[in-house]
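Blinded run. Sample ID left blank on purpose so nobody reads anything into the name before looking at the predicted structure. Input follows.
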Amino acid sequence: PLSVVISGNYWSDQYNYKVDQFGFSNLTLTETTTSIQVPFALRYYPLKGNFRPYIQVGASFRQLLSSEGSFSKLDSLGGERGDESIENPVIDLSDQRKETLWALDVAVGATWKNVIGRGFLTFQIGYSRGLNNLAESRNRYNNTELIYTYNYVSNDFTTDHLSMQIGYGIPLY
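Blinded prediction complete.
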């Protein structure tokens, strides 16, 4: 009851980054990335029958399609100068992000055959641990608008993901 699982997913992430800068400035970044993900996994089914729970371990590869950031900066200048706000709807961050990423994946789930037609229902809860730095170190200082307008240089970071999937599969033999 061991299976090899390979699939393809369209992946979209969003995260927020907030930081106080220099004691008088607040920066907020909302970054959205899209990518194609290809997970490879081994799936173990401990039970046989129409309802089959499973445990899954594997790795996934992600290819970045785009990365965009919305920046907002508020400077509290005090006194007569008051506050100054700078907002930019969208800045392309693709060249500041790595194009390829790897992650380790674990999941638990179940398949349930013959509930609706000849297919099967699926349910899965998974956790994915990023293995490499998302920031492209060699391009970190290339965007002068980010540096001089927003005082922003990307840190080294990875992302972890918690996911839930519900689906319906039709076997093709």
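Unblinding after everyone has recorded impressions. The beta strands are 2-6, 9-21, 25-44, 51-78, 82-92, 100-113, 120-130, 160-169.
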